[in-house]
């Protein structure tokens, strides 16, 4: 089935779609957006969006505010309601804002006030904060976990235990992004557990500094694994870690102690990173249903991040890695959007992957995944057989008056930057991050200020989802 594209129109003037439709939008006050997180609070569904650095007018109070965190009520996804904006750090792009946001219910956290809801966010590159968002229209700062950092990024928070894996830049370490682990089971009283990273990043080490961590995903006590992704568009590393050894083992960051919880490490080719590493465990592979061995397998889905405009780097893609034998991970499949399908390298902005959804909501888990693909919008993949993923839908939003020309990276991690052409100054959709909720809605936010788009599947793609699971929410 061909893409639905109005005839004789320039790219970006209208939405382009296949098996996905727009449900609702919000301009997010024209702010450049990074991470969306959806949380059910009572009978309401509340969306939290972390922003890159910039300064915009907040119409709710009439003040010019540094980009921080947007809070919206998306209970009715066709009419999302903007509730509040919490300013972040002054600065532009990666040097300001409050990119990362996670939310836990007090009823889930072991030692929290059971009547409250808590938001974990970064304050630019300086600090990690906890906010009381029980009344999302009136968020209140509860505590600052740690400040005086030289970097932050994509954290992970186990709501059932309170353990948080904070991407930080401890000034004593040799990298601006490593992992600081805290017990936030009582959000008002954070307890530091340990620092963690790759050997060579720790204080006092010598030689080359290994690539910085981008983020991790934990399976909690039951799964006893933490999956860390390092790198963005280069020198990617997937690290599989024993959670119990990580939390209970020796804490001093010696090479021996840093390696002790490591189960496996997969080094990717030099021109690919590991922005998001998403575990997809216990997959019954249809092709092997009659085989005595190997019918059920474990995978990690690695998503690179495109950095340079006009494809002036290696193609950033999605990689499916079989970790059924954890000590011997190996790649079994990949996915990229065919460039010729939309002339994406010259359309403007970045082309290539950035992130995947991270929710394991049963409506989609092990059936469908969604990948933010910058100027190629969001792509929906059938992942029921991870050895042969198949694209079944996509949505590229239309540009609006808010859409800007994406900032130009200062340099290329792959060497001297090649010269850009006039396409570098073209406005383009830059779908930055994607998340889903238990109801089956898909949320995408735009790096180039185009705002929020709430989507749903249609046609054959919709038939793949587990709607029985969604109906229970």
TrEMBL record:
It comes from the Bacteria. This is LVIVD repeat-containing protein. It comes from Ramlibacter agri.
């Amino acid at each position: 089935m061909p893409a639905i594209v109005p005839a004789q129109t320039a790219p970006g003037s209208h939405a382009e779609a296949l098996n996905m439709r727009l449900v609702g939008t919000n301009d997010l006050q024209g702010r450049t957006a990074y991470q969306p997180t959806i949380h059910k609070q009572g009978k309401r569904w509340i969306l939290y969006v972390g922003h890159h650095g910039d300064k915009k007018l907040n119409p709710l109070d009439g003040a010019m505010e540094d980009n921080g965190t947007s809070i919206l009520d998306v209970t009715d996804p066709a009419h999302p309601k903007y509730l509040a904006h919490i300013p972040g750090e002054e600065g532009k792009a990666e040097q300001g804002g409050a990119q990362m946001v996670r939310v836990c219910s007090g009823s889930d956290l072991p030692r929290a006030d059971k009547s409250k809801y808590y938001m974990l966010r970064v304050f630019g590159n300086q600090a990690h904060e906890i906010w009381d968002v029980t009344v999302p229209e009136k968020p209140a700062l509860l505590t600052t976990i740690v400040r005086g950092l030289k970097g932050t990024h994509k954290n992970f928070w186990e709501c059932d235990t309170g353990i948080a894996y904070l991407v930080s830049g401890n000034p004593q370490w040799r990298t601006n992004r490593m992992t600081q682990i805290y017990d936030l089971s009582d959000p008002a009283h954070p307890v530091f557990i340990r620092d963690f990273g790759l050997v060579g990043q720790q204080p006092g080490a010598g030689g080359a500094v290994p690539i910085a961590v981008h983020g991790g995903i934990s399976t909690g006590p039951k799964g006893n694994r933490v999956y860390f992704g390092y790198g963005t568009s280069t020198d990617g590393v997937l690290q599989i870690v024993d959670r119990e050894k990580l939390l209970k083992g020796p804490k001093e960051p010696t090479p021996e102690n840093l390696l002790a919880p490591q189960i496996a490490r997969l080094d990717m080719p030099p021109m690919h990173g590991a922005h998001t590493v998403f575990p997809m465990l216990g997959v019954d592979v249809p092709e092997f249903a009659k085989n005595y061995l190997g019918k059920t397998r474990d995978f990690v889905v690695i998503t690179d991040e495109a950095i340079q405009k006009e494809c002036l780097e290696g193609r950033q893609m999605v990689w499916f890695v079989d970790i059924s034998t954890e000590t011997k991970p190996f790649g079994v499949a990949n996915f990229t959007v065919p460039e010729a399908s939309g002339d994406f390298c010259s359309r403007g902005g970045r082309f290539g992957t950035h992130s995947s959804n991270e929710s394991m909501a049963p409506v989609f888990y092990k059936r469908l995944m969604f990948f933010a693909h910058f100027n190629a919008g969001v792509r929906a993949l059938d992942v029921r057989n991870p050895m042969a993923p198949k694209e079944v839908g996509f949505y590229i939003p239309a540009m609006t008056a808010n859409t800007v020309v994406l900032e130009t990276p200062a340099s290329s991690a792959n060497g001297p930057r090649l010269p850009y052409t006039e396409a570098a100054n073209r406005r383009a959709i830059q779908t930055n991050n994607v998340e889903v909720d238990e109801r089956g809605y898909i949320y995408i936010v735009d790096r180039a200020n185009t705002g929020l788009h709430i989507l749903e599947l249609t046609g054959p793609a919709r038939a793949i989802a587990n709607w029985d699971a969604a109906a229970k929410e």
